[in-house]
């Protein structure tokens, strides 16, 4: 389903939902960052998605990484909570969602890299080349916070 991201846009539609979502920032042994290229926007992002009933947020994070990338990760820490009301996502079905994402740090445990129906590409990216990729500013904020190895999680 196609989506339109609005960020600090005074003409953005007013949200009609908030969905709890998790994402995970994880590096491979070479220090490259795991990213997926989303089919709905074409942008690169950390793997993640919406929490389902009956699971914890950490379980959601692990499940989403496995579903979107084929990899298994352990959740090792909290990067931050991202709930900026100026980031609104409009879907073609009429849902207009205010961002609410809890981003975790993770450790690669196993699995085989593969893409899913939600991605056109899944790869580990050299962090020095991130500026060449189309990454939404809110995703880039999470990535930057992860790479900074902050002692205190971001709460915003």
Your description of this structure?
The protein is an alpha/beta fold. The chain has a single domain, classed as Alpha-Beta Complex (Nucleoside Triphosphate Pyrophosphohydrolase). 15% of the residues lie in helices and 42% in strands. It is built from two helices and twelve strands; from the N terminus they run E-E-E-E-E-E-H-E-E-E-E-E-H-E. It has helices at 57-69, 137-147; strands at 3-7, 17-18, 21-27, 33-38, 44-45, 48-50, 71-82, 87-91, 96-98, 101-111, 119-125, 154-155. The strands form three sheets. A five-stranded mixed sheet has the order 6-3-10-7-12, with helices on both faces. A four-stranded mixed sheet has the order 1-8-9-2, with no helix packed on it. Strands 5-4-11 form a three-stranded antiparallel sheet, with no helix packed on it. A hairpin with a 4-residue loop joins strand 8 and strand 9. The longest helix is centred in the middle third of the chain and has 13 residues, at 57-69. The chain is globular, with a radius of gyration of 15 Å.
Specify the CATH architecture.
Alpha-Beta Complex
The figure for the number of domains is 1
CATH T-level fold name = Nucleoside Triphosphate Pyrophosphohydrolase
**What's the CATH C level?**
Alpha Beta
**What is the overall shape?**
globular
Q: How is the largest sheet built, in terms of strand order?
A: 6-3-10-7-12
| Broad structural category | alpha/beta
Number of strands: 12
**Alpha carbon gyration radius:** 15 Å
N-end to C-end Cα span: 27 Å
H/E element sequence = EEEEEEHEEEEEHE
Helix fraction? Answer: 10-25%
CATH homologous superfamily annotation: Nucleoside Triphosphate Pyrophosphohydrolase
Low-confidence stretches: none
Question: What proportion of the residues form beta strands (DSSP E)?
Answer: 35-45%
Mean residue pLDDT? 96
Q: How many DSSP helices? A: 2
Largest sheet: 5 strands, mixed
């Amino acid at each position: 389903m196609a989506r339109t991201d609005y960020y600090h846009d005074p003409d953005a539609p007013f949200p009609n939902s908030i969905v709890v979502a998790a994402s995970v920032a994880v590096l491979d042994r070479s220090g490259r960052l795991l990213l997926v290229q989303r089919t709905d926007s074409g942008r690169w992002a950390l793997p993640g998605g919406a929490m389902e009933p009956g699971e914890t947020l950490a379980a959601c994070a692990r499940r989403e990484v496995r579903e979107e990338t084929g990899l298994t990760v352990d959740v090792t820490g909290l990067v931050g909570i991202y709930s900026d009301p100026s980031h609104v996502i409009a879907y073609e079905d009429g849902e207009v969602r205010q961002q609410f994402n809890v981003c975790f740090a993770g450790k690669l445990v196993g699995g085989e890299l593969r893409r899913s129906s939600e991605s056109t590409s899944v790869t580990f990216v050299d962090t020095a080349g991130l500026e060449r990729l189309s990454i939404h500013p809110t995703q880039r904020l999470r990535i930057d916070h992860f790479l900074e190895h902050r002692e205190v999680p971001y709460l915003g």
